[in-house]
Amino acid sequence: MKRGDDNRHETPAETKAKPELYFSRAFQSEIEEVLEERESIEIVERESKDDIYVAVGKKESSYDALRWAINFVVKPGCLVYLVHVFPPVNYIPSPVGRIPKSQVGPEYLKAYMNEESVRRRSLLQKYISLCSKSKVKVDIMLIESEIVEKAIVELIPVLNIKRLVMGSRRSSRRQRRHGKAELVRKNAPEYCEVTVVNAGKVVPENQETTPPFAIPLKENERSSSKARPEFSRKNDRNFFECTCFSGKFVQP
């Protein structure tokens, strides 16, 4: 979105095309939609060229990547964004098997979604604690998507991400070449520096390596920085606040 467009009126078509934006606190019981309140939220433009984005998940490699980023690339005063991609909930477990979400009662569904939220908070807590111990400011990005690498690649131009760190599993060199981190590095826009970390060391990029499949991207997403959409964030947000993009934003 270009500067100066915040106050313009949107057509219905434009509204549908926008990502659904959620604003939450990481220790609340659920993510609350505040689309109606977006106009009243003061947005402060911040210089984010030194901010670091680190993709985190269940694997120990994510913890290694965050620790490497804190030790080697995080500068004083910069902000570390923890990017966590989680799959959408389509089925609910029950004693008789998995049941489609559409067939579950609202109370049971709400209880299950709260349990999922608690599990995510528990997972992210160790990353938050590491940043806290290192006296590093941290924020959280939650993305609901079936395809981790595609979701992260599509997030890069939206947030103008210039530095992204991802962990790679302790596997063979051939397997690492075909992993999520390598796919993101191969498909990321040129202005975004993607660092892949394995066992605490940077994995060099093999220019001759071709990923097993290409993530479909729009042509303008790989063009120059002039084509990048602008995205601003509040710079005085609570330590445990996060922004969550729904699956409608990152489509599998």
Automatic annotation (TrEMBL):
Residues 218-232 have a biased composition (Basic and acidic residues). Residues 52-176 form the UspA domain. Residues 208-232 are annotated as: Disordered. InterPro entries: Rossmann-like_a/b/a_fold, UspA. It comes from the Eukaryota. This is UspA domain-containing protein. The lineage of its organism: Eukaryota, Viridiplantae, Streptophyta, Embryophyta, Tracheophyta.
